[in-house]
Amino acid sequence: MKPNVGMTDKLIRYAAGVTLISLHLSGTVTGLFGGIILAIAIGLLITGLVRFCPIYHTLGKSTHSDEPRLPGKH
Predict the structure, then answer these.
(1) Where are the domains of the chain?
(2) Is the distance from CB of 49 to CB of 41 less than 8 angstroms?
(3) pLDDT digits (tens, 9 = 90+) for 36-64
(4) What's the pTM value of the predicted model, to 2 decimals?
(5) Chain centroid offset of residue 28 CA
(6) Do residues 38 and 44 make contact, with C-beta atoms less than 8 angstroms apart?
(7) CA separation, residue 64 to residues 35, 36, 38 (Å)
(8) How far is CA 49 from CA 13, 35, 43, 52, 72, in A?
(9) Does residue 52 contact residue 4 with C-beta atoms inside 8 Å?
(10) pLDDT mean over 29-40
(11) DSSP label at residue 67
(12) Residue 8 in contact with residue 63, Cβ under 8 Å?
Protein backbone atom coordinates (compact mmCIF):
# COMPACT_ATOMS: atom_id res chain seq x y z
CA MET A 1 0.00 0.00 0.00
CA LYS A 2 1.47 3.28 -1.11
CA PRO A 3 0.82 6.10 1.41
CA ASN A 4 -1.81 8.56 0.21
CA VAL A 5 -2.41 10.54 3.42
CA GLY A 6 -0.15 13.54 3.97
CA MET A 7 1.07 14.93 7.28
CA THR A 8 -1.54 17.73 7.56
CA ASP A 9 -4.30 15.28 6.59
CA LYS A 10 -2.98 12.84 9.22
CA LEU A 11 -3.10 15.47 11.97
CA ILE A 12 -6.63 16.51 10.99
CA ARG A 13 -7.73 12.86 11.08
CA TYR A 14 -6.21 12.43 14.56
CA ALA A 15 -7.91 15.59 15.86
CA ALA A 16 -11.29 14.64 14.38
CA GLY A 17 -10.98 11.05 15.64
CA VAL A 18 -10.13 12.10 19.19
CA THR A 19 -12.95 14.67 19.18
CA LEU A 20 -15.51 12.12 17.99
CA ILE A 21 -14.37 9.54 20.54
CA SER A 22 -14.62 12.21 23.27
CA LEU A 23 -18.19 12.98 22.20
CA HIS A 24 -19.07 9.30 22.42
CA LEU A 25 -17.35 8.68 25.76
CA SER A 26 -18.87 11.79 27.35
CA GLY A 27 -22.36 10.60 26.43
CA THR A 28 -23.02 13.56 24.13
CA VAL A 29 -23.87 11.14 21.32
CA THR A 30 -25.44 7.82 22.18
CA GLY A 31 -27.33 4.92 20.69
CA LEU A 32 -26.99 4.00 17.03
CA PHE A 33 -25.66 7.44 16.11
CA GLY A 34 -23.04 7.15 18.86
CA GLY A 35 -21.95 3.78 17.48
CA ILE A 36 -21.65 5.22 13.98
CA ILE A 37 -19.64 8.18 15.32
CA LEU A 38 -17.34 5.77 17.18
CA ALA A 39 -16.80 3.65 14.04
CA ILE A 40 -15.96 6.76 12.00
CA ALA A 41 -13.54 7.94 14.70
CA ILE A 42 -11.74 4.60 14.76
CA GLY A 43 -11.53 4.64 10.96
CA LEU A 44 -10.02 8.13 10.99
CA LEU A 45 -7.42 7.14 13.58
CA ILE A 46 -6.46 3.96 11.71
CA THR A 47 -6.16 5.68 8.32
CA GLY A 48 -4.06 8.42 9.94
CA LEU A 49 -1.83 5.85 11.60
CA VAL A 50 -1.19 3.71 8.50
CA ARG A 51 -1.29 6.79 6.19
CA PHE A 52 -3.47 4.97 3.68
CA CYS A 53 -7.09 5.83 2.92
CA PRO A 54 -9.06 3.33 0.80
CA ILE A 55 -11.51 6.06 -0.25
CA TYR A 56 -8.64 8.22 -1.56
CA HIS A 57 -7.27 5.14 -3.35
CA THR A 58 -10.63 4.45 -5.01
CA LEU A 59 -10.92 8.08 -6.13
CA GLY A 60 -7.28 8.26 -7.26
CA LYS A 61 -6.55 11.09 -4.82
CA SER A 62 -3.60 11.70 -2.51
CA THR A 63 -2.48 14.34 -0.02
CA HIS A 64 0.89 12.63 0.45
CA SER A 65 3.97 14.23 -1.04
CA ASP A 66 6.59 11.86 -2.47
CA GLU A 67 9.37 14.29 -1.57
CA PRO A 68 10.18 14.42 2.16
CA ARG A 69 10.22 17.84 3.79
CA LEU A 70 13.26 18.87 5.74
CA PRO A 71 13.01 21.10 8.81
CA GLY A 72 13.52 24.73 7.87
CA LYS A 73 12.94 24.10 4.14
CA HIS A 74 9.77 25.51 2.56
Answers:
(1) 7-59
(2) no
(3) 999 999 999 999 999 999 999 999 999 99
(4) 0.82
(5) 21
(6) no
(7) 30, 27, 26
(8) 9, 21, 10, 8, 25
(9) yes
(10) 96
(11) S
(12) yes
